[in-house]
Design a protein that fits this description.
Layout lengths: L2 H8 L1 H8 L3 H10 L5 H8 L4 H13 L6 H10 L3 H8 L7 H14 L4 H6 L7 H11 L4 H14 L12 H7 L7 H9 L1 H8 L3 H10 L5 H13 L2 H12 L6 H9 L4 H11 L1
GO biological process, one term: regulation of apoptotic process
Protein name: CARD domain-containing protein
InterPro entries: CARD (IPR001315), DEATH-like_dom_sf (IPR011029)
Length: 276
């Protein structure tokens, strides 16, 4: 079952309960955003019971490939159903102040101790991360130590592109692959193009930063996309980026998913579709 249909099916009851009071406004807003057509809106509003109207809306959205899932979630956020959206997407709901305090304390007890804290908390033993970091800085230029340093960094978070090799633009171009995606990957990419564009256009700079750090696009690509964004619209720039990514090597889809997954829900959808 596609990602969007699974989400709609699993959450239909909770959507019926939470959206019954706002269903008319939501349906009209979706019509205004060209998600629904006029005859579809009339059919939904003609249903007598508000909760059944919600079910009719969900059934209508399921008819579309992709289900206009992102547009629907965006519409719910517009009507202040933020918590519901996070629950449907499987994102963590913001904690209460008490929970945040308890979480912060637990985090402080387990996170690596930085250099400034080590003076205050001298009783705490240095972490493995600190040890490798200190060792690699002791003898500048040691390739073995630098490799060990970057390995530990890779285990704890992304290494900023400025700290990785190569830095020379010609070498970057060699790493940035070219060529079409695998046929099966390209078919999936094309089928989900509109949803990818819709999501990336709202945070294009962040998307490009992540793709750039993953060596999927280079500086020339970033400059070209930014120029389109300034001269036209974000959606045109996002569409150009999506077209460009189709020609970054036969295995680029997995790399794109890995780069975007921490921030962009569309990457999780792509991963689900790819593996099912």
């Amino acid at each position: 079952m596609p990602y969007y249909k699974r989400k709609y099916t699993e959450n239909e009851n909770i959507l019926r309960t939470h959206l019954a009071d706002d269903i008319n406004k939501i349906a009209r807003e979706l019509k205004g955003r060209t998600v629904l057509q006029d005859h579809q809106l009339k059919r939904i509003l003609a249903v007598e019971n508000p909760e059944d109207r919600v079910s009719e809306l969900i059934s209508t959205l399921k008819e579309y490939r992709g289900g206009h899932f992102d547009a629907f979630m965006d519409c719910l956020t517009y009507f202040h159903h933020d918590k519901l959206v996070k629950e449907i997407k499987g994102e963590p709901v913001t904690r209460s102040h008490t929970q945040q305090t308890a979480y912060k304390k637990a985090e402080d007890d387990t996170r690596p101790v930085c250099r400034t804290e080590s003076v205050i908390r001298s009783h705490t033993q240095p972490t493995a991360y600190q040890k490798v970091e200190d060792d690699t800085r002791a003898v500048p230029g040691s390739q073995t130590q630098q490799a060990a340093y970057h390995k530990v960094k890779d285990d704890t978070g992304p290494v900023p592109r400025s700290q990785t090799q190569p830095r020379d633009k010609n070498e970057v171009c060699e790493i940035t692959e070219s060529g079409s995606m695998k046929d099966s990957h390209e078919r999936l990419w094309i089928s989900m193009t509109e949803r990818i564009v819709y999501q990336l256009q709202h945070d294009l700079d962040d998307a490009m930063m992540r793709l750039y750090q993953a060596w999927i696009i280079d500086l020339d690509d970033k400059n070209r996309i930014n120029k389109i964004s300034k001269e036209k619209q974000e959606v045109d720039a996002a569409r150009e980026l999506v077209d460009l990514l189709r020609n970054r090597g036969d295995n680029v889809l997995e790399r794109i998913i890995k780069a975007l997954k921490p921030k962009f829900n569309i990457a999780k959808e792509l991963e689900y579709e790819l593996n099912n």
